[in-house]
Amino acid sequence: MSPAAGSEVQVDVEGRTLTISNLDKVLYPRTGTTKGEVLHYYAQVSPVLLPHLKDRAVTRIRWPHGVEGSSFFEKNAPPGTPSWVRTVEVSTTGSRTGTGDGTLRFPVCDDLATLTWLANLAALELHVHQWTVDAKGVPRNPDRVVIDLDPGEPAGLHECAQVALLVRDALAARDLTCTPVLSGSKGLHLYAPVPASGRGSLDSDGTTTLAKEVAEALQKAHPDLVTATMTKAKRPGKVFLDWSQNSGSKTTISPYSLRGRERPTVAAPLTWDEVEEGAEDELALEQLTMDEVLERVAELGDVFEA
Question: Which CATH code fits 144-246+265-287?
């Protein structure tokens, strides 16, 4: 029998004792998905999710009353954070996190116990920077470039897939490979690793400049399909290439994180064969739910290549 709503249970997760509450609470009313099912998803997907979170400060979006209720961003580790949760203090005055005074104390989700703790807080979405921290918590230069493909209606995933192939070619011309990821919302994300030889020379400003150059070049070459302009009035029917998420202060949804949408969709990595099919067939691609992603992982493992 499932615990009643409002009840608490204690569970052992890799040697840590956690108090889990409200397992029967519905977080996605449209599908009836409960907090217990969200916890189960994160536990099952953790072998492929945790490598994408490793050594990255994590910003959370929490929905304590479910996705039809209010949500809030959380950067600092909240009051009551267990002493065993790894945290890093990052200056808010440097290029990593933008301008400001003082520091932010981010949690880092390197293990299943921390992931379970976050999920119990209804932290459905886990967002990370494009940089990691070292063993002492000091931010490194970014190890990847991300370009967010955001379609303006009536454009959708079909157009995103077409543009993703253009971005892939543009990055290949710069000797960079990339991996496609369904955003779990409307579009696609493309991740390109910064070569190890370049990690010491490209800071967040450098990767932002690189992404912006790619976006603006494609806007010039394909003005009917691509825009690099943030103004929403210029996006209808086009795919916006958001290069700004490479800023040291900005974050992107982690691969395999849930989204706080009507359905429990996931930021799901794809193969290029799937993207190519989506570019040809407008019905071939759709955002995937957590159950579909668990089936993919069981069959294919992590298809994230970059």
Answer: 3.30.70.3300
